[in-house]
UniProtKB/TrEMBL annotation, chains A, B:
Residues annotated as domain Peptidase M24: 149-351
Creatinase N-terminal domain span: 8-141
Pfam families referenced in this protein's UniProt entry, alphabetically: Creatinase_N (PF01321), Peptidase_M24 (PF00557)
Highest taxon in the source lineage: Bacteria
Protein name listed in UniProt: M24 family metallopeptidase
Region span, Disordered: 192-215
């Protein structure tokens, strides 16, 4: 298991060398975790120019060993910065400079201006370049162990949601239902929720990123929930919309069918070689044609992994094409202010058609349930 | 109520003018909230050079109106950036440039290098300077409404903790107790937890920032908890350590007395004019003299407010002196790996001696309780 991190670091090092800078400083926690097995708070990873033996994880304090931070690659050298609380990025730059590197690639989309300036001050001979999104791109295609973690995260999520659906919902607040869902995620083995659980009922239903309020579930409501488990750092997402009571209204059935159809179109567009914007369009144009184009979310879906929201983005202006083994969400929705709405969200892994097409991880039924 | 935000913006504008740059771009969410009443996700605040009427809150999407993000100052002009998902900081720089400003102060300890470069690209005529920690410093001294929110946050926290102490603890996992505490915070009116609740039992007790595990509470354990409520954005903190069972061991009583004495010394050092490092030393030297200097936390306490961890830092190298109406924590502790430990944490407001000295917000008893 620990070889996988050394291999990932090697691949990144090769990219850096090709780009002219053999040393790199990784500071974004999910990227540190991806390359080092774990990410103690504040830790940075220095990829040495020489090779794996010069790689170093620098931490501001002695790591707690909290499993939630991941399991550090034992082959990786670990340094605690000498002065409590000092910025380990500074120690990393000094280390790179001291080992003869003349250039250091840093994550300009993560380091603040202030930190960057400090690095230039302590290591003036070091040319700082931009790593760009190199690690984010490397993270996109998952290996089978990563997909296994996502599969387990999805099972946990399906279980938590399934249990909630068997319980009484009318009269309970969005907040309580959200807390209940999060408790069940942990009960079923999650490290924690993948993101703040969303429960939206009545006029709130279908709202993207609705924060649970004290509104109580009522008969006749749409109820939309969005939740996910974090399992060993890997995060998945499911979103479902239900109707409360015995008989959905016609407008509810029609809206649900529309969003279901759009979401299915998005799912079916997931193939290796498909453009990100084409997947987005497959779902978006159906909602647009039905007159709902105005209030739609900026993207139809996004990658998942060590972060709940990672590359790629399935959005109208996105460049790039899907590969096999890239996990993404497909989550279109329509929200009608004051009335409610529908959002349907799955996590799937892109697979070759010959391998059966996209692998659906979140298997809770998408049939419209009256609860 | 809405005047308070205009007044805060005015004070900041005056500081900026004095520093040579009449326009400022605030991006750190707590700072945006402090100055604008609310902080929709991704929003930035542009302080105009001309005066209050030119101030503008720029948002990447239409705000949801989620109360958890605060209540926006109605006098403040609100702009949603024209293209969905574009960086509102860019729009802000263009706006400042267009209104004739020649300099713009930005938060270099918040903006990434990449964002900063984009601002320079879109507004090349605009000289970008550093706001430094100006807003963080302005936030340190709280007004009576802010202190009232912290008082309520502390009451909620004391209530949640008090209820837990009346329940059965033996046999329950750290995780479940933490989730239970967080549920009770919300039940008693919190917007949510101020930070991830820590519950640490047996050998984990006294560990700083321990993440709750599946370890179950046992007779004879130390049990240390650390939690806080977020009430209207204002966050407080309490930490207490208990013994499980009827008879604490002698080593437990001795260690508890030591930490209690150190914490009391820290609290009693809180006076207007006292140096941050002197408050730290008051607690730290007692623990150090008893032989526990090695594993101590880097700071004895910190400010609280719209962030759980804000200026000032009560630490050995900290420069500066306390003012009245600055709320801080005092939270020394000792952790003995494999055995457990004690941490005692209060939130207090610095007050003049003539006003009764430091106002204790977290009033749960600090007597060693056997539960």
């Amino acid at each position: 298991m620990s070889e996988v991190f050394a291999v990932r670091r090697s691949r990144l090092r090769d990219r850096c060398v090709a780009a002219g800078s053999a040393a790199a400083l990784i500071s974004r926690p999910a990227n540190v975790r991806y390359l080092a097995g774990g990410a103690p708070p504040g830790a940075v990873l220095l990829l040495g120019p020489v090779g794996d033996s010069a790689d170093e994880l620098l931490c501001p304090t002695s790591p707690n060993g909290d499993p939630v931070d991941g399991r550090l690659d034992e082959q990786l050298r670990l340094t605690v910065v000498p002065v409590h609380g000092d910025d380990p990025a500074v120690a990393a730059a000094e280390s790179a400079s001291g080992s003869g590197a003349d250039a250091l690639a840093v994550e300009e989309n993560h380091l603040t201006v202030a930190r960057h300036r400090t690095l230039r001050t302590v290591a003036p001979g070091l040319r700082l370049t931009d790593l760009g999104g190199a690690v984010e791109q490397q993270r996109m295609v998952k290996d089978e162990d990563e997909i296994a973690c996502l599969r387990i995260a999805a099972e946990i999520t399906d279980q938590a949601l399934g249990e909630l659906l068997e319980s009484i919902l009318v009269g309970r607040t969005e907040r309580h239902l959200a807390l209940e869902l999060e408790r069940r995620l942990v009960d079923h083995g999650a490290d924690g929720p993948a993101f703040p659980t969303s429960v939206a009922t009545g006029p709130n239903a279908g709202r993207r990123r609705h924060r649970p309020s004290d509104r109580r579930v009522e008969e006749g409501d749409f109820l939309s929930v969005c939740l996910g488990a974090n399992y060993r750092g890997y995060r998945c997402e499911i979103g479902r919309t239900f109707v409360i009571g015995t008989t959905p209204a016609d407008w509810q059935i029609d809206l649900y069918d529309l969003v279901f159809t759009a979401q299915r179109a998005g799912r079916e567009a997931l193939l290796p070689g498909a453009g990100y914007r084409d997947v987005d369009r497959a779902a978006r144009h159906l909602l647009d044609s039905a007159g709902y184009g105005e209030g739609l979310a900026p993207l139809t879906g996004h990658g998942v992994g060590l972060e709940i929201d990672e590359d790629p983005q399935l959005a109208p202006a996105a460049m790039g094409k899907l590969d096999a083994c890239v996990p993404v969400t497909v989550e279109p929705g329509v929200h009608l202010p004051g009335r409610g709405g529908v959002r349907i969200d799955d996590t799937l892994v892109v697979r070759q058609e010959a391998d059966g097409g996209p692998e659906l991880l979140t298997i809770t039924t998408k049939e419209l349930l009256a609860l």
